[in-house]
Specification:
Blueprint: H1 2-6, H2 8-30, H3 45-52, H4 56-61, H5 66-75, H6 87-94, H7 99-135, H8 140-145, H9 147-165, H10 170-195, H11 205-228, E1 230-231, H12 233-257, H13 262-273, H14 281-284, H15 302-310, H16 320-328, H17 330-337, H18 350-372, H19 379-399, H20 410-443, H21 447-473, H22 475-509, E2 514-515, H23 520-542, H24 549-570
Antiparallel strand pairs: 1-2
Helix pairs in contact: 2-7, 2-21, 5-6, 6-7, 7-9, 7-20, 9-10, 9-20, 9-22, 10-21, 10-22, 10-23, 10-24, 11-22, 11-23, 12-22, 13-22, 18-19, 18-20, 20-21, 21-22, 23-24
Length: about 575
């Protein structure tokens, strides 16, 4: 079981296969030959450019050949890419005569972006947060609901921030977060209950009711905001404070639990450390982590420096195939490795540390200019950031050793690694959101549907594999850990993952109000989601907190019913007046 969680690619690969299969179904449906339109039904390109269509997808749908679509996406500002790559131009102008190759290329790039998003969070973001919690001497409870929560919820949080701020598609962010919350709280919990329903496993009643009630309160407040259609900075801050109150409840309960017997304290500690669904293998597995071996100056050779730079793994654990894969993956690995300071002893490399401190300011400047200045680039800012990076690189070279990571100013190094991992997570999330919006325009469907399904599944399939494995193999403690993660994690994504973008967006409109993008399906999603939570909240106590198959079957039925209705609308099987 330890090997399952030590491989970030396993869950990501499964999630991407499902996502690619979903996109393939959409391709088969929307790429089927359509009957020729009636004469005069297709608007001219000039009329479309003059504002005859409200969105890029509507304008593309009114054109019937790839040349006119290529001209349209180049000339229309509403088709401007939200990231660094113009996917619509690539698809219609380069692969216009071979759309199958275009779909294959975009699907492959979608796989890469999902992998990069998850790998950046697991390899760079979470380790820096873990070390920060130790340096700051946070209690397990506070670390679990703050830094560890942020680490696990980073993909959803940054995808939501990008959709609200950079791409101005708030409905995409709302649907992606709610889709992930619905998937975890209904499908994952239902799967767990169904698989271990015959084992007579029960969970703590207080923790379950606390997490579900807080999640319901957060969803009710969010539903009220969506129904009103606008939000002020003060309302957004009040919504964000729900999680602060939740952290306060956890802190108080943790303080009170100190007076309980030792056995109860151990169980509560396990639960607190797993609030975000992080598997505790030391509690439920038999394998013990192998402590990293100390590397001495004599054993640190140039070959080992190359191993860390290329593979981040010992030479004896590599095969020819892994070396080949690592070489092919270098273009995806090196940009992050050479810009994110890593101070883990097993991954320490002085050349990489010096280079990362030198390049990091330039990357931050590029992100700032692309976000606030658009296509305009300020040469002076790049020169200043380059000089700052050169200074940091010299300081890093003079104050570090080849044999071990720095012990002095470790907090500064950790904050640098945290900042750059946040930067890369944001950049990758921005590109992922841009690609999904472009796919929505290509297929002629709402990007919010892709956010509700593809992005939500891609960010949540890891939770499915991790939590189900912990629940199945961990006994009562494993079930408690898994269920805590299935509700506390979605609570973080709902409040922080949507609260932070709402605060940023409403602050940009201050003293005015931020208008919530209109999406009639948002309230429907919220309704189904709360029905699933109420089902678990009512049935579980009646079953004496046992993970019964009746609970799991009901949750699975609710989620699949919702998914069927939404997909039926996408494929035109079911038309309901909205």
């Amino acid at each position: 079981m330890a090997s399952l969680f030590s491989s970030p690619l396993s869950s990501r690969s499964l999630s991407l296969l499902i996502n690619l299969f979903f996109i393939f179904l959409i391709y088969l449906h929307f790429a089927s030959p359509n009957p020729p339109p009636h004469s005069g039904s297709i608007k001219s390109l000039d009329s479309l450019a003059g504002g005859g269509s409200d969105s890029c997808s509507e304008g593309l749908a009114a054109l019937d050949d790839h040349r006119s679509k290529c001209t349209y996406v180049i000339s229309q500002s509403k088709c401007t890419p939200q990231g660094y790559i113009d996917y619509l131009k690539i698809f219609f102008c380069i692969f216009g005569q071979s759309p199958v190759l275009g779909h294959l290329l975009l699907s492959l790039w979608l796989f890469v972006l999902f992998y990069l998003l998850g790998d950046t969070a697991s390899s760079y973001f979470c380790p820096s947060l873990d070390k920060l919690s130790k340096v700051l001497k946070l209690s397990p409870t506070m670390a679990g609901v703050t830094l560890l929560s942020l680490g696990n919820g980073a993909p959803d949080l940054f995808s939501s921030v990008v959709s609200f701020t950079k791409s101005n598609n708030g409905d995409f962010g709302l649907n992606s977060v709610l889709g992930g919350v619905f998937f975890v709280s209904s499908f994952v919990v239902g799967t767990i209950c169904f698989l271990i329903g015959s084992r007579d496993v029960s969970i703590d009643k207080y923790s379950f009711i606390r997490d579900v009630v807080f999640l319901l309160v957060a969803l009710c407040c969010l539903g009220l905001i969506v129904f009103i259609g606008k939000v002020t900075i003060w309302v957004a801050l009040c919504y964000l404070s729900i999680y602060i109150i939740y952290v306060g409840f956890l802190s108080v309960s943790h303080f009170l639990d100190r007076k309980k017997p030792i056995s109860d304290q151990v169980l509560r500690t396990r639960e607190d450390l797993a609030e975000m669904g992080v598997p505790l293998l030391s509690y439920i597995g038999e394998e013990k982590p192998i402590p990293p071996q100390r590397v001495t100056p004599e054993s640190r050779t140039q070959e080992q420096e190359y191993d860390i730079l290329v593979l981040d793994s010992p030479k004896k654990q590599r095969s020819c195939f892994s070396v080949l894969v690592s070489i092919v993956g270098l273009p995806l690995y090196l940009p992050r490795r050479l810009t994110i300071p890593v101070v883990c002893e097993e991954k320490w490399s002085r050349p990489c540390a010096v280079v990362s401190t030198a390049i990091a300011p330039v990357l931050l400047t590029e992100l700032y200019c692309s976000h606030y200045n658009g296509s305009k680039r300020n040469l002076i800012m790049y020169i200043i950031s380059g000089l700052i990076g050169l200074f940091f690189g010299i300081v890093a070279f003079l104050t570090t050793e080849s044999s071990r990571p720095p012990t002095k100013f470790s907090l500064v190094w950790l904050l640098g690694g945290f900042t750059m991992s946040v930067t890369w997570t944001y950049i990758i999330a921005q590109e992922l959101v841009s690609l999904l919006i472009s796919l929505g325009n290509i297929f002629g469907i709402s990007p919010s549907v892709l956010g509700l399904t593809v992005l939500a599944w891609g960010n949540s399939l890891g939770d499915l594999i991790a939590n189900v494995t912990v629940a199945v193999h961990g006994g009562n403690d494993g079930a408690q850990i898994a269920l805590s993660g299935c509700y506390a994690g979605p609570l973080f994504n709902t409040v922080i993952g949507l609260g932070v973008p709402l605060v940023i967006s409403s602050l940009a409109e201050y003293p005015g109000v931020y208008i919530i993008p209109s999406d009639s399906m948002l309230l429907e999603t919220l309704g189904f989601l709360m029905v699933g939570l109420l089902w678990a909240l009512v049935i579980m106590p009646k079953k004496k907190m046992r993970l019964d198959r009746l609970v799991g079957g009901g949750l699975l039925a609710i989620y699949l019913c919702f998914l069927f209705l939404r997909m039926a609308r996408v494929f035109g099987v079911l038309n309901i007046d909205r």
